[in-house]
Give the backbone structure.
Amino acid sequence: MLGQRWEYRIGNSIVMVDNAFSWTFWAQERLIVNDETAQEAGGRFGLYRSFGEAWLTHLGEGELRVVMTSQIAGIACSVTLDRAPIEPEALWEASWRGARYSWPQQSEWVEARGNRWMA
């Protein structure tokens, strides 16, 4: 499996968006908030995935929205809070062998640098 992770800081929370795929056309995604998996999905031939999560803001309840789309040069990830875009603080990558819905250990994610083709 090949994976990438986008890391966001939203208020006092750390939000991770993970995407992984295999060469057998399997893809899986998950949304992690403060080290807890909030949502997870997977399937074959996925070109688009979105997650919506209720989020408490200083103005009341809002929506954290994550949209991942497949593109020719990799996967694009967009995160918004009440339609306001949020930029990632870091990008991580990993490769591992495992079954569907498996993920690498935290220590196996390495910061993406230089010439990366996935993100």
In short: The domain at 2-111 is CATH 2.40.128 (Lipocalin). The chain has one domain: 2-111. The first strand starts at residue 2 and ends at 10.
